[in-house]
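Sequence of Phosphate transporter (Sulfitobacter undariae).
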Amino acid sequence: MTDPKSDLRHLETLDRDLDRYSKLEMGTAYASRPIVGMGIALVFVLLAGVSAMLFLGHSSNSAIVVIAACLGAYMALNIGANDVANNMGPAVGANALSMGGAIAIAVIFESAGALLAGGDVVSTIAKGIIAPESMGNATTFIWAMMAALFSAALWVNLATWVGAPVSTTHSVVGGVMGAGIAAAGFGAVNWPTMSAIAASWVISPILGGGIAAGFLWLIKSRIIYQEDKIAAARVWVPILVGIMAGTFATYLTLKGLKQLISVNLPMAILLGGAVGILSWMVMIPVIKKQSEGLENRNKSLKVMFGIPLVVSAALLSFAHGANDVANAVGPLAAIVHASDTGDFLDAITIPVWVMVIGAFGISFGLFLFGPKLIRMVGGQITKLNPMRAYCVALSAAFTVIIASWLGLPVSSTHIAVGGVFGVGFFREWDAERRIRNARTNMPERKTYAPEERRRRKLVRRSHFMTIIAAWVITVPAAALLSGLIFVLINLSVG
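Predicted 3D structure, token representation.
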């Protein structure tokens, strides 16, 4: 006959052991996820090298091209892990999209943008940063592009690990500059172009933040602070959606569809205006129906901005894929061309198989490593809701159009993150303004001590300083890495 108390103790011990095993399994699964991701990424990089071997097996420099293809795939993975967060982060942070939904939309639209509209003609020396003739010969040029590609990928990888969204364009620019200096000295660099790029460090986030804050002020003053919020939303939300549709039509015509449609800025604005007016007219009955039965409070307004925010994230992803895929595969295409023909002075067209590596690499990078930066941009800098996230997405497209009109080089990363900061700092200013007004009208109202008010800031200063520091050192850090890699390559092959 068994002792009931002994049986109970045995069961309790068994439960504790099972609980430990359960926690161990969960911990093992959690720890193994990064390893699985890195394993899949390594397989993709190796497949990129195999594809290069299949397409250029006849080339005398096939080994160089295979290595370059692997580096291009590595760079594309890092662009997906870091850069795409700027498009999807606000929508995820506002709970308009789940993480899975955001990744699915981004993979589809990034790949479509890269494959349909991303086959840009690139210069053999990226964007005129260094003089082509300074390279001397094709071999030096190939090693310089190899060093630039590898250094840019390493820097973006490091920034993603730290949790800082950086400009992949600036990383490539720094890589090309560093390799050019190592190969031909400081005189080879086009310093006016570099000065304009440096100016964009300041111009991009200020423009993006200012425009995002302006739209948030418009939404607050015309809708949120109105006595009848729903009635105000019926008037203003169709107008805002029309502005968004027109802006994105202009943006995509100028930046994302330049391979399919060739138009100048006035024509693109005219097309965007027509799309905007049509969208405004279509949205009037839609918003009227959507607003029926909603309570007169801020939470009800979020419903009306959900779909426009998802659409804007998809369109931003398409345009990003069309533009930034060249950062991954531009130097690779230049290496392929120089290896195959020996020519490195003329402009080249990116081959289709190279574009496929870029498109799939961005998608894999986003899927495997993107959630970390998406969460950071979407929720850790400042708290976003659909209205605020909408302002960030709209400012990204708006700023690129203004910059194109003014001829200013800007970074999509800096614009989008600047928009998030702009929204956060505007909320701080608006909250302070309302506290001051309340204190004037009701002197007896409770006020916070200075230390408490600093603690209650709506923008996390630690993220702000980390991101700004990463932006400032991106070009010099990538340049230094590239120069060192170029020297090491020359020593090893020499």
